[in-house]
Amino acid sequence: MAIASSLLAIGARRRSDDEGWHHIHGANGLALSTRKPLDLTFVTVDGTVFRLAEHRDRVVVVNLFATWCGPCNAEAPDVAAFAAAHAADTIVVSVDVGEPAETARAFVARYGIDYPVASDESSSVSKTIGMTEYPTTLFIRPSGLLSCAFVGQLDRADLEAERTYALGSGEPAGHDVAHPGSIGLIPGA
After folding, report:
1. Is the dihedral of CA 123, 129, 134, 140 positive or negative?
2. Distance (Å, rounded) from C-alpha 180 to C-alpha 14?
3. Could you tell me which CATH number the domain at 8-185 has?
4. Could you tell me which residues come within 8 angstroms of residue 138 by beta carbon, excluding any fewer than 6 positions away?
5. Which of 47, 116, 124, 170 is spaced 20 to 30 Å from 41 by Cα?
6. Burial letters for 70-82: b for 16+ Cβ neighbours within 10 Å, e otherwise?
């Protein structure tokens, strides 16, 4: 079976000569394009439509979570602090997967979140990208291309490292080229 060159695949390793390298931390069945801009749209809990395509000039961090998820709750204060610290040049949007807007609103109130939060009660976003694990966080470059998909709980240092990497400098958080669990683009496949 042929694997499209624009999909992330398990077992790939970073190649120093591949400027298009993208990475995933954690095990997941994600199927995301790394060669064309991501095209996702969310409706936030306040009714605003959020389209990734309208934010091509900044890094966008899409944090997919569920309120029943322990690691999602544990990372929420770090995500909120990160969003506040970088409000001028980075957009954070969180998406509550599989739960109604009322549940997402309660999460927003619990953590004092002041960035966009969407409710995806039908889980359409997770189905579109193949997400099976919570939390999953996507880092999108100003060009609209995926920089990283991070599966699992992030801390503030991870968020900072991935933002720096998405801006085109630095190494991704916790990245080890020889790490057997790394997932990345298989160039030319």
Report:
1. negative
2. 11
3. 3.40.30.10
4. 32, 38, 60, 61, 62, 64, 129, 146, 148, 149, 150
5. 170
6. eebbebbebbbeb
